[in-house]
Amino acid sequence: MPVKTALIPSSVHFPGAVNSSFTSALSFTRPNEKDAMPTFRILDQDGVIVDQSQNHPETSKEELLKMYKDMVTVSIMDIIMFDAQRQGRISFYMVSAGEEGIAVGSASSLSPNDPIFAQYRETGIFQYRGFTPSDFMAQLFATANDPGRGRNMPVHYGSSKFKVHTISSPLATQIPQAAGAAYAVKVQNQQNPTDEQRVVACYFGEGAASEGDFHAALNIAATRACPVVFICRNNGYAISTPTLEQYRGDGIASRGVGYGIDTIRVDGNDILAVREATRQARALALSEGGKPVLVEAMSYRVSHHSTSDDSFAYRAKVEVEDWKRRDNP
């Protein structure tokens, strides 16, 4: 007798996978059969535009000079303050040199009114938003001019004036805080539609993405459609742990897709690419009534993790010098 073939619905409506289609073929989804997410860039390592056919927004000469000066200022301050710690003038310091393009480039595409939750390698954000050398020194030397009155560790900057929440040492705690703040901002945006519509920006390293707070934050931000731009600074090392020992999948960007979040991977050493990716990420975060966006900025940590670390105990000095020479933002 002929075998009757039942009609198969084009899609299932299980509440846990509403867009899944039926199939009669048993097949596992294998991550190594999927192409890795590409890395967006505008400039190559020599600062030359890689594709002239792309119509990227023009950046004024004044803005380019400001970004360049801010990056150089951060780099020079890092050298001076690292040495100051070695001389016993301050107790602790963390360098962000080599990753300045991520902080400065992204800050240039945010509104000055967008709240920011940063980690400890985002000095460029404060520099871009208007922190002065005196502001930095007040915090590093714990003077009376420090808004925290010296109660916090060095490099744990914060500013209500510039709308940057005070940096905290525990890894990843700022990520769910940013999701919660973004939910509040969403309500404010809805209640005041004629006011400037804001997003929240949240920065963290790929090591912090190994914490449970990261996953809880992305999940709640996605399910509650919070207008937050998550910016992951993937510099290859979580203190002494290289990325090959941190995760098996395709970086941090693939996790955003898993949570249903619009995601892009960008060359973090290309400040124009970071600037453009953040500009579009902010626009996406404000679209459809608000939603999260994940930006994974790829870079390399040319510094020691902090003044308490000797990175040459777990990586070759020539590796660091090579990155400094050929791909410094």
Automatic annotation (TrEMBL):
Does the keyword ATP-binding belong to this entry?
no
Q: Which domain of life is it from?
A: Eukaryota
Q: Which reaction does it catalyse?
A: N(6)-[(R)-lipoyl]-L-lysyl-[protein] + 3-methyl-2-oxobutanoate + H(+) = N(6)-[(R)-S(8)-2-methylpropanoyldihydrolipoyl]-L-lysyl-[protein] + CO2
Oxidoreductase as a keyword of this entry, yes or no, is yes
Q: Which UniProt keywords apply?
A: Oxidoreductase, Thiamine pyrophosphate
**Domain Dehydrogenase E1 component span(s) in chain numbering:** 69-328
Q: Name one GO molecular function term.
A: branched-chain 2-oxo acid dehydrogenase activity
EC no. given is 1.2.4.4
Cofactor(s) needed by this chain? thiamine diphosphate
Q: Name one GO biological process term.
A: branched-chain amino acid catabolic process
In terms of CDD domains, this protein maps to: TPP_E1_PDC_ADC_BCADC
- What is the enzyme's main class? oxidoreductase
Q: Which residues form the signal peptide?
A: none
What the record says about family reads: Belongs to the BCKDHA family.
PANTHER family assigned: 2-OXOISOVALERATE DEHYDROGENASE SUBUNIT ALPHA, MITOCHONDRIAL (PTHR43380)
Please describe what this protein does.
The branched-chain alpha-keto dehydrogenase complex catalyzes the overall conversion of alpha-keto acids to acyl-CoA and CO(2). It contains multiple copies of three enzymatic components: branched-chain alpha-keto acid decarboxylase (E1), lipoamide acyltransferase (E2) and lipoamide dehydrogenase (E3).
This chain belongs to which protein, by name?
Answer: 2-oxoisovalerate dehydrogenase subunit alpha
